[in-house]
UniProtKB/TrEMBL annotation:
Official protein name in the record: 2-polyprenyl-6-methoxyphenol hydroxylase-like FAD-dependent oxidoreductase
Signal peptide range in chain numbering: none
Domain of life: Bacteria
Domain FAD-binding: 5-316
Family matches, as InterPro entries: FAD-bd, FAD/NAD-bd_sf, FAD_aromatic-hydroxylase
Molecular function as annotated in GO: FAD binding
Organism this protein belongs to: Hoyosella altamirensis
Classification of source organism: Bacteria, Bacillati, Actinomycetota, Actinomycetes, Mycobacteriales
């Protein structure tokens, strides 16, 4: 097949997914991942509606993913004393199937074992996106030639930077930050539930599911301006969170104290990637790299669906990347747009900026999660996720 040597950058969800499909179609796939090994942990991610579940089923991983689902019972908002303000049912945040990002990544990665070459602890340093081939120089000093390069390296994509330019052109700041994801002792004895305490513009949630001894905090806060920080300086990240959340009550002081022991934490702005086109020459973007939304934009479902579509179109076009990239973009653009629209509400929902905003959120969601409105709300949260008609590529299997 022409264009059969494919390099994928990023081994989280989109990367191993597209590698899985391409290998099945007979492509020769290499995945490069900056981390020294498959990255563990991270937040729980959810799948909603038929297309998400259908792709997991076609990949042969639906049952395994179900075996490891979080089975969350719901999200309860509490006041400074820990008394319930209002509660949302499990489906509201967890969709049809919720699993930890790291667990899902491992399931997909294991599906590709023996079929895909992985280069851990490396990254693309430079690439020449030529008319016939892509010459790649890795940070390790290795140089290789590929036919196509796929950027599946997340919100701060390396391939996007090398092929399209600096991320400031493509990342739209949404006025919020999110941090957390590390373990703290589960002193509240949370059992498959998330509790969330907030004040205007700030909220901290705590969840626990399959490891009863540990709870995971997520901090969300509003910021008018973008913060200048070094994402690899964990001490600085902890200082920012500690300053933002100083003075909050409930479990917040205890979690800030426990944060001192964390060796890792997630920290990012809530931003959306907006690209006029997902491909240039022999390079193409999928998942968060092309249309990420940090949180609330069904990013994981979008990543597995887009990997399925891109690989399927490349196989159907017999490796003709110009044709396949155009078809892929045509099929994914509106779908991704719908998911990003949903994500617009994530920050304001979790940390409304004003007292009045908090009151409106609480009152409206108390109403919307009761019958008969609950059915309508459930349908609305699935609408964006279901907004694509999946093609059947089984006829092009190698
Ligand atoms: C707080 C939070 C909550 C979320 N909740 C949900 C949810 O409920 N539902 C949902 O669907 N989604 C959720 N998401 C989003 C979801 O995690 C992502 O959309 C999804 O993981 C997309 O996967 P991806 O593979 O495209 O990118 P990522 O998961 O970001 O993976 C990118 C990979 O590329 C690697 N990489 C980075 N730079 C390089 C480089 N230079 N060279 C090689 N490799 C590199 C990284 O190490 C990583 O392994 C949430 C996100 C956050 C932050």
């Amino acid at each position: 097949m022409p264009n059969s040597r494919v390099l994928v950058s990023g081994a989280s969800i989109a990367g191993p997914s597209v590698a899985y499909w391409l290998a099945r179609y007979g492509f020769d796939v290499t995945v490069v991942e900056r981390a020294a090994a498959l990255r563990e942990g991270g937040f729980a991610v959810d799948f909603r509606g038929k297309p998400h579940l259908a792709v997991l089923e076609r990949m042969g991983i639906l049952e395994e993913a179900k075996d490891q689902q979080t089975n969350m019972r719901g999200l309860t908002f509490v006041d400074a004393e820990g008394s319930t303000e209002f509660a949302l049912p499990g489906w509201f945040l967890s969709g049809d199937l919720e699993i930890e990002r790291g667990a899902l990544s491992k399931i997909i990665y294991e599906k590709t074992q023996g079929e895909v070459e992985y280069l851990f602890g490396d990254s693309i340093a430079a690439l020449t996106n030529g008319p016939d081939q892509v010459h790649v120089a890795f940070e390790s000093g290795l140089t290789r030639v590929f036919d196509l390069v796929i950027g599946a390296d997340g919100l701060h994509s390396n391939v996007r930077r090398l092929v399209f330019g600096h991320e400031s052109q493509f990342l739209e700041f949404g006025g919020y930050y999110v941090a957390g994801g590390f373990d703290v002792p589960n002193t509240l004895g949370l059992d498959h539930i998330t509790l969330d305490h907030g004040v205007p513009g700030r909220s901290m949630s705590l969840s626990s599911h399959h490891r009863p001894e540990a709870a995971t905090p997520v901090f969300v806060w509003h910021s008018k301006e973008q913060i200048d920080y070094d994402r690899r300086d964990i001490k600085q990240l902890k200082r920012i969170v500690a300053t933002e959340f100083a003075g909050l009550r409930w479990e917040v002081p205890r979690v800030l104290e426990a944060m001192n022991d964390a060796e890792w934490m997630y920290f990012d702005s809530i931003s959306q990637v907006k690209m006029d086109t997902y491909s240039r020459g022999r390079a193409v973007l999928i998942g968060d790299a092309g249309y990420g939304a940090t949180m609330g934009g069904l990013g994981t479902g979008l990543a597995v669906v887009s990997a399925y579509v891109l690989a399927g179109e490349l196989a159907r076009a017999d490796g003709d990347h110009t044709l396949a990239f155009a078809r892929y973009e045509e099929m994914i653009r509106d779908y991704a747009k719908g998911c990003q629209k949903l994500a617009d509400g994530a920050g304001p929902f979790l940390a409304p900026r004003t007292r009045r905003g908090r009151w409106i959120r609480n009152a409206s969601h108390r109403l919307l999660t009761r019958r008969p409105m609950a059915g309508w709300l459930q349908k609305m949260t699935v609408k964006a996720a279901a907004g694509i008609e999946l093609e059947d590529y089984s006829g092009v299997l190698a």
